[in-house]
């Protein structure tokens, strides 16, 4: 019995010593934590003081800002740009279109496509909208105002291109006047197609 009692006392003493050791460790950690907090506050205060000092020095070094009305305007120097000039071809009368378009147009198997594609290479569809070949009154709608005619010198250049095409195909001179009149029909058809497609697109808008 006495031996068991001594063993219990020994265990109790060891537990008390462990509790005392842990309590001392906790107290030490609390002290260290307080010191760290104080050090942190001191560092923050020094940092703020340093920033304030730098800002004050910077404000003293800079000249006072001029009013907007007195400030000199800032003019940005334009950067040098390399302008890309598209490669163009003179199709006649000094009328120029892109070389790639002219090469593509000449490969058209049909005369009608040749004329119509050449028109959209000379004028944009927007420029062709609301125009007519010669500015005459439409027989079907005589009460409507005349449409602005296409530029005669451009039409003349297109006609010369078409004439050269027909000559290369071996068209005899006797048939040339009739073929050139047919060119007028192709051009009128193209103008009508653009007007019709524009009206259709307008109706499809929400």
UniProtKB/TrEMBL annotation:
SMART domains: BEN
PROSITE patterns, A to Z: BEN
Cross-referenced InterPro entries: BEN_domain, BEND5
MF GO annotations: DNA binding
Feature: compositional bias, Low complexity: 56-73
GO terms, biological process: negative regulation of DNA-templated transcription
Entry protein name: BEN domain-containing protein
Organism of this sequence: Rhipicephalus sanguineus
């Amino acid at each position: 019995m006495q031996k068991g009692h001594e063993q219990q006392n020994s265990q109790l003493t060891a537990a008390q010593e462990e509790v005392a050791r842990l309590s001392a460790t906790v107290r030490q950690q609390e002290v260290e934590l307080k010191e760290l907090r104080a050090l942190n506050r001191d560092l923050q205060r020094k940092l703020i003081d340093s920033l304030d000092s730098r800002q004050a020095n910077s404000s003293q070094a800079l000249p006072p800002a001029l009013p907007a009305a007195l400030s000199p305007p800032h003019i940005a120097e334009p950067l040098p740009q390399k302008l890309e000039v598209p490669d163009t071809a003179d199709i006649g009368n000094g009328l120029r279109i892109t070389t790639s378009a002219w090469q593509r147009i000449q490969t058209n198997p049909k005369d009608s496509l040749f004329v119509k594609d050449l028109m959209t290479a000379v004028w944009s569809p927007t420029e062709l909208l609301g125009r007519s070949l010669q500015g005459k009154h439409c027989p079907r709608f005589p009460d409507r105002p005349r449409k602005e005619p296409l530029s005669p010198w451009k039409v003349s250049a297109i006609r010369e291109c078409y004439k050269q095409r027909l000559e290369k195909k071996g068209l005899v001179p006797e048939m040339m006047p009739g073929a050139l009149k047919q060119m007028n029909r192709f051009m009128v058809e193209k103008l009508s197609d653009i007007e019709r497609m524009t009206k259709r697109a307008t109706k499809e808008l929400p």
